[in-house]
Amino acid sequence: MSIIRTGLQRFANIFSTGPGGILSRFVTSLAPEENKSTPKTTKDVIATCNKLIEENKSRNFAIIHLLGKQWRVTDGDLLVVEGYWPPNIGDQIKLEKVLLAGSKDFSLIGRPLVQPGLVNVTATIISKGLSHTRTHFKKKRRKQYMRINFQRAQQTMLRINSVEIANKINEPAKNVF
Amino acid sequence: MSNKHLFLKPGFVRAPLQNGVGRYVQQLQRIVLKFCKTHGGSRGMRDYIEQDLVDFAKQNPGVVVYLKPRRHRSPVVVAEYLNGDRVWMSMHNKSQSEVTKWIEVLRTQQGDVSGTRLRKFQYTDHPSIQGPWSPFTFKNPELNTAKLPDPKFGANNRLPMSATEQLRIMFEKQRLNEKDLKTGE
């Protein structure tokens, strides 16, 4: 068993060595590309992913960061966001904090964000309203203490219109911000 | 104490008529402002009508606005939506700014939302795109053809590492490093 373990450790060492480990080839980085020769397998993987994106056969999804929460979204999803948020009904917005994007056969993992311009997530604000009345009831027994508070939170409903992945994985990021 | 919310109808996130997929359609269709011309309870409502209502009607050409003066009755706003919902709201003794805020809420919401408690904050038609996870996802397919019981798959590999093993691993690492040094020379 110990032999198996040491074998595994060696294997893990292989994974952890090198710039960013073996998983780095799936990851797009915000840092500018350095002049490094990319290995052949990496090129193959990138070319395959680009081809899959071009064929556009399967549905895309993305994990976006919105108001402190992470949502897994795909075309036609509905989200409800709680709390004050300025966008008004009918507004079309772009959700730019993309943590991960993927399709049926590949995923692009950002660290922490996928490079700007690679994934395009658009949404429409459908409605802004208030939640149902929530009761906050506090009571301490035998202490003559009781509080009842009522509150309604603001809720904004979003429709995800599109999750598009541009056909340019591993191209250097243009600094748009 | 009010326990009303415990018995609220629970519901899921829905939008009427796939709203927002192609284009956005405003859900508020009709709004009726009922008020009294003399009573003090309608004062905020009258101020709103005098100062803000024309702008509201101009900015929302899709909304039909009715005014209904009635003697000695408290002010009320009734909003009607595309999905048939009708929201009735008393505006008694509310100031002009409060009336403005409530009418904005009525304009932007998509129906009678206060009557349901949302169970989830997301709705999706496609819960999984890369396939749902199962215990065999990312597992070695070797297991499919293995004949069980097999000492390789049946081994208890959850035991903590013993001191002897740790020493052994350290020793092997040391040996590997020595080898590396030799090859490097």
From TrEMBL, chain A:
<keyword id="KW-0689">Ribosomal protein</keyword>
<dbReference type="InterPro" id="IPR036164">
    <property type="entry name" value="bL21-like_sf"/>
</dbReference>
<dbReference type="GO" id="GO:0003735">
    <property type="term" value="F:structural constituent of ribosome"/>
</dbReference>
<comment type="similarity">
    <text>Belongs to the bacterial ribosomal protein bL21 family.</text>
</comment>
<dbReference type="GO" id="GO:0005762">
    <property type="term" value="C:mitochondrial large ribosomal subunit"/>
</dbReference>
<dbReference type="InterPro" id="IPR028909">
    <property type="entry name" value="bL21-like"/>
</dbReference>
<dbReference type="Pfam" id="PF00829">
    <property type="entry name" value="Ribosomal_L21p"/>
</dbReference>
<keyword id="KW-0687">Ribonucleoprotein</keyword>
<protein>
    <recommendedName>
        <fullName>Large ribosomal subunit protein bL21m</fullName>
    </recommendedName>
</protein>
UniProtKB/TrEMBL annotation, chain B:
<keyword id="KW-0496">Mitochondrion</keyword>
<dbReference type="InterPro" id="IPR039927">
    <property type="entry name" value="Ribosomal_mL43"/>
</dbReference>
<dbReference type="GO" id="GO:0005762">
    <property type="term" value="C:mitochondrial large ribosomal subunit"/>
</dbReference>
<dbReference type="GO" id="GO:0003735">
    <property type="term" value="F:structural constituent of ribosome"/>
</dbReference>
<dbReference type="Pfam" id="PF05047">
    <property type="entry name" value="L51_S25_CI-B8"/>
</dbReference>
<keyword id="KW-0689">Ribosomal protein</keyword>
<keyword id="KW-0687">Ribonucleoprotein</keyword>
<dbReference type="InterPro" id="IPR007741">
    <property type="entry name" value="Ribosomal_mL43/mS25/NADH_DH"/>
</dbReference>
<dbReference type="GO" id="GO:0032543">
    <property type="term" value="P:mitochondrial translation"/>
</dbReference>
<dbReference type="InterPro" id="IPR036249">
    <property type="entry name" value="Thioredoxin-like_sf"/>
</dbReference>
<feature type="domain" description="Ribosomal protein/NADH dehydrogenase">
    <location>
        <begin position="37"/>
        <end position="110"/>
    </location>
</feature>
<comment type="similarity">
    <text>Belongs to the mitochondrion-specific ribosomal protein mL43 family.</text>
</comment>
<protein>
    <recommendedName>
        <fullName>Large ribosomal subunit protein mL43</fullName>
    </recommendedName>
</protein>
